[in-house]
Amino acid sequence: MKNNNNNNNTKLILLHPYIQKQGSSNRLWLLAFISLFTIAFLVTLIYSRESTTTTTATAAVAAAVSSVSGFSNTQLPATVINTLLHYSSRSNDSFRMSYSELKPISDVLRKCSSPCNFLVFGLTPETLLWKALNHNGRTVFIDENRYYASYYEELHPEIDVYDVQYTTKRSELKELVASVKEQVRNECKPVQNLLFSECKLGLNDLPNHVYEVDWDVILVDGPRGDWPDAPGRMSAIFTAGVLARSKKGGNGKTHVFVHDFVRRG
């Protein structure tokens, strides 16, 4: 009876070949995963080494550039300055400065402690020359023609130029000078903050930072004064004088040059 019962309870279990294949498939997936992981690790390791090498190379290049920059902080060689003056003074432009006019300004810029702050009233044929001579310094130009100033700045992005609206007229020269003499102790003081000035000859609508800079050299070569209603240079000369006297830091002196000082207005 036991035997029969055992036989009746016996179950036949057949292992389908698919189960064996499935086990092999799992092993293949595991092997593929390990392979991918190994490849990813190797790629990461190689990339890290290349990144380290690139960083080292970049640091070396930066050091080299820094070294070159340090060298470029020196002033222009005398031969370069003399060459620039030579060709500028022989330009075909009828409004150019002569060599004797260029040389004193160049000499002062050359002796100016770096970085030298140079303010120029007027965009002229010498604009690029002034920028070049004040090597590694700060050169700012002021001009009365906003359209020409914008055009010039677009043509030469390295030039820093601002436009200003003059309220003076050359024909009012005598009245303006008399007004300044009367107000010399009040609105037209030689030392003052021009940003808040009410003096008729004081320019108070320049960018704020222009009044905050201690200018080492100022050149008045504008605006134009060729006709009675032209602005004339009285306001530029007065403003340059106040900026020079109101200097608080930087080099001890401010050198002010006025071009065409013998002409009226």
UniProtKB/TrEMBL annotation:
The keyword Transmembrane helix applies. This is Protein IRX15-LIKE protein. It is a single-pass membrane protein. It holds the Pfam family IRX15_IRX15L_GXM. PANTHER family: OS11G0490100 PROTEIN. It comes from Quillaja saponaria. The keyword Nucleus does not apply. InterPro entries: IRX15/GXM/AGM (IPR006514). GO terms for biological process: xylan biosynthetic process. Its main location: Golgi. It comes from the Eukaryota.
